[in-house]
Q: What sequence folds into this?
């Protein structure tokens, strides 16, 4: 759609005095505008979709970085109850040349913007026009970078309006669309396009029609308020500004006891399950946004309600958490509360063994830890993998599965003397085939190399850990067994004299002798649920949490 090069902004409410003042500020922009507090926003976000005022807009620019590029065109439609009330449109002189690739895409030429108003004149009028409306555009985050930059530069104040991004909403509501650009969506949804796309006025009108479709889908998904849609779109900035959506009533009377809490979304679906050693303290940590991992923060900001279950001990809270995460397919909060230990673990894929240092994962067939010095452990692992390399092979992450028994023996401190291999080989020389003899010889040489590799750590095979957990409970002890890294369902209650329990209590010796089994070192691959449960159990065993609960005593064969 062609426009006259000297077209002025088409908006009914111009303010010449404010424009003059902003021009004076613009002459002093090298000094930088004086800092101002953001304009006070009236909180209209609790309104229903049909009652809110929206500013559906689009801008065209000379490039992607507002500090090095300018705006060439702005179009904004003020909309309420589905009706366009006012239109703001203007070309803008960017005060720099428009790159050829941008001219080709937008059909906006240097000649067209030569006599157009500069941003110093346009920005005050645009800010007046949008008032306190909710901004709507496609890929809004990129548009807001320009609007905020020039608002700060020209007016010395930010644009505080909340926004809805049609692209973010499409990602959640129309996932099946193969192309999520405005052109792709207009074709997919049969939206009528008037004029040329990549021009602000045409794009703004297509965005408005797309937004109407999205509002319909939001209503179908039981969203009724603007604030719900803003929270649902999931951008961090808006979420942090809105704050936690959990009602204050849900945060009252939370006990300072172990337990498990649940965060639920707008549809009451559980999105986070987390254990808590102290429910009140752990839940209050969720309010400290800067200390939350981004994945956890996104879910916290998306949550609408919270409920919890008290548990008698930290161990029972941890076990409940692991089971609930698996059952509800919820997010694992381990990277937030850090109730994991780090292990060196091996998993087998085909004829290769892959190694990793970190919390236990599904697929691990052997694991050793706990690892305190991750940097040192990685050095040892790298040296081990270097020894595993064969001629013509260089792989820093995996090794031949035939060497897994030796790897497990080395990292568990059970590596046999390589002379044993030689004596066995000599003894079986006449009984095994030349091919098997060759393999046996290679393994003997590999063990010889391992004997020269320093292993400065004493790690346990965590899947072999066994012992007895003792948990205080109203003047008595709940006794539970751990066999081969698994907390058994078996339990027994023991009375203790005067309600006092020490780890030297004779009861400990009694049960410690009962839990004994031969280590296996290599096991079937861990399932996801088993990995979660073992992670939490190991953390409890090796942390101070078990001493608060009661205590854990290793059996002699698993120490």
A:
């Amino acid at each position: 759609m062609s426009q006259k090069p000297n077209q002025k902004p088409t908006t009914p409410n111009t303010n010449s005095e404010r424009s003059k003042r902003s021009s004076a500020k613009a002459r002093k922009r090298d000094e930088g505008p004086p800092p101002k507090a953001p304009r006070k926003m009236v909180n209209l976000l609790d309104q229903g979709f049909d009652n809110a005022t929206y500013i559906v807009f689009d801008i065209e620019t000379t490039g992607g970085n507002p500090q090095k590029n300018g705006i060439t065109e702005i179009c904004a439609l003020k909309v309420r109850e589905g009706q366009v009330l006012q239109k703001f449109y203007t070309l803008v002189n960017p005060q720099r040349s428009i790159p050829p690739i941008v001219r080709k895409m937008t059909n906006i030429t240097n000649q067209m913007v030569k006599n157009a108003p500069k941003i110093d004149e346009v920005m005050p009028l645009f800010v007046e026009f949008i008032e306190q409306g909710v901004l709507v555009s496609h890929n809004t985050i990129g548009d807001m970078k320009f609007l905020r930059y020039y608002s700060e530069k020209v007016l010395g104040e930010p644009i505080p309006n909340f926004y809805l991004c049609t692209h973010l909403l499409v990602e959640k509501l129309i996932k099946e669309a193969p192309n999520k650009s405005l052109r792709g969506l207009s074709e997919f949804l049969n939206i009528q396009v008037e004029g040329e796309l990549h021009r602000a006025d045409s794009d703004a009108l297509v965005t408005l029609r797309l937004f109407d479709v999205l509002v319909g889908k939001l209503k179908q998904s039981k969203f009724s308020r603007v604030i719900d849609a803003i929270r649902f779109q999931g951008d961090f900035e808006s979420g942090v500004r809105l704050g936690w959506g959990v009602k204050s009533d849900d945060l009252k009377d939370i006990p300072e006891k172990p337990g498990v809490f649940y965060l639920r979304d707008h549809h009451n679906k559980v999105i986070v399950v987390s254990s808590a050693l102290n429910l009140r303290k752990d839940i209050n940590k969720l309010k400290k946004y800067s200390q939350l991992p981004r994945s956890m923060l996104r879910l916290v900001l998306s949550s609408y309600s919270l409920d919890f279950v008290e548990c008698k001990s930290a161990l029972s809270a941890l076990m409940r958490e692991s089971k609930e995460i698996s059952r509800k397919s919820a997010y694992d909060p381990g990277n937030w509360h850090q109730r994991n230990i780090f292990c060196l673990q091996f998993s087998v894929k085909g004829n290769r063994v892959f190694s990793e240092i970190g919390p236990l994962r599904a697929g691990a067939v052997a694991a050793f830890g706990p690892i305190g010095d991750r940097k040192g452990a990685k050095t040892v692992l790298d040296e081990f993998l270097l020894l595993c390399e064969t001629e013509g092979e260089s792989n820093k992450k995996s090794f031949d599965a035939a060497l897994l028994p030796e790897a497990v023996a080395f990292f568990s401190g059970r590596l046999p003397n390589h002379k044993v291999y030689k004596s066995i080989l000599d003894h079986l020389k006449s009984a095994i085939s030349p091919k098997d003899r060759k393999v046996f010889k290679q393994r003997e040489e590999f063990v010889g190399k391992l004997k020269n590799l320093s292993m400065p750590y004493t790690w346990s095979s965590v899947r072999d850990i066994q012992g007895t957990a003792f948990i205080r409970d109203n003047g008595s002890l709940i006794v539970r067994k751990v066999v081969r890294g698994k907390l058994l369902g078996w339990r027994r209650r023991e009375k203790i004299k005067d309600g006092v329990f020490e780890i030297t209590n004779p009861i400990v010796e009694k049960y410690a002798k009962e839990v004994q089994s031969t280590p296996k070192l290599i096991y079937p691959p861990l399932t996801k649920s088993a990995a979660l449960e073992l992670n939490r159990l190991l953390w409890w065993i090796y942390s101070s949490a078990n001493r608060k609960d009661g205590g854990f005593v290793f059996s002699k064969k698993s120490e």
Q: What stands out?
A: The CA atoms of residues 116 and 376 lie 64 Å apart.
